[in-house]
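A brief tutorial aside. Many learners find it easier to grasp structure tokens once they have seen a single protein encoded end to end. The record that follows does exactly this for Heme exporter protein B. Read the sequence first, then the structure, and try to relate runs of similar tokens to stretches of the chain.
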Amino acid sequence: MTAKLTGLLRRDLALAYRQKAELMQPLIFFLIVISLFPLGVGPGPQTLQKIGPGVIWVAVLLSSLLGMERLFRDDFNDGWLEQMMLSGLPLSLVVLIKVAAHWLTCILPLLLVSPLLALFLNLTPPMYQALLLSLLLGTPLLSLVGATGVALTLGLQRGGVLLSLLLLPLLVPLLIFATSAVDAAALQLSYNGQLAIIGALFLLALALTPLATAHALRVSQN
């Protein structure tokens, strides 16, 4: 089974890198959104430092939603998803593989360019460290919850709009705790509590969302 799951991960990564235009959309959108904020609020270093963590997190949320809709779309349209349901592999594990592939191809590049953007927004090293830790813990949670939303809207026309309406309210607590961690770092306070809450939310999502997503995918096939 391990070899089959590894093969699925390699397949999803290969398919993602073949669609380079779609693969680059979240990263380009992320860079554009963050570049526009200094033009809108002014280039003052103190202002940028104050809003920087929230700007980066909001940009990550919106950029990930941009690439989220295709998580199961192509597999649903060409019948591959139905074949996976009949293959005997646990569908929840297939979901985890696809979520991992989405994180590696759509969200990891955002994290890799975040040091440059942190300098652009005048974040101090402690603030960036807290931001990076919150992103490493929070973005997998974002992918897991997003997969459930995608599965629920899979068979709908214009499901992207509905997906945003479903997911953004659910992700508000993540945004609050993540930005709170960076604010605490800016004041040289401990932010372990905020990271612990984000980690707990991630573990809860890791336990529940693959099962919920698998059930939603089965319903979408009926």
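Self-check: The chain has one domain: 2-221. If you spotted this yourself, you are ready for the next section.
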